[in-house]
Amino acid sequence: MSNIDFVNAFRAISQEVNTIAIEKGWWRSDRSDGELIALMHSELSEALEGLRHGNPASDHIPEYTAVEEELADVIIRIMDYAIARNYRVAEALIAKVAFNRGREFMHGGKKF
Fold first, then answer.
1. How far is it, in rounded angstroms, from Cα 70 to Cα 75?
2. pTM, two decimal places
3. Residue 53 confidence (pLDDT) above 90
4. Residue-by-residue DSSP string for 12-30
């Protein structure tokens, strides 16, 4: 897949995610950046809880694990936020991967 195809697909899915969120009542008024970022964080915490409980099948989409579902939820939250704020996350992702390719091993000695 080319970078352009990825960006276009990411934007299309992001728009769908945002449309669903609007239809389900989550955008009746503007939401603060802090609230939206906290919701992303909460999905990561739910992924951690899934691991703490042995990463069972998801309750909502049982063909996937709890961690897979929660990581998908993080991406959904990011996509919704990106569309709402007109952020170019797909393009930034491509740029960041290219940047990371040229970084030093362990980024110059970081422990983690």
1. 9
2. 0.93
3. yes
4. HHHHHHHHHHHHTTTTSS-
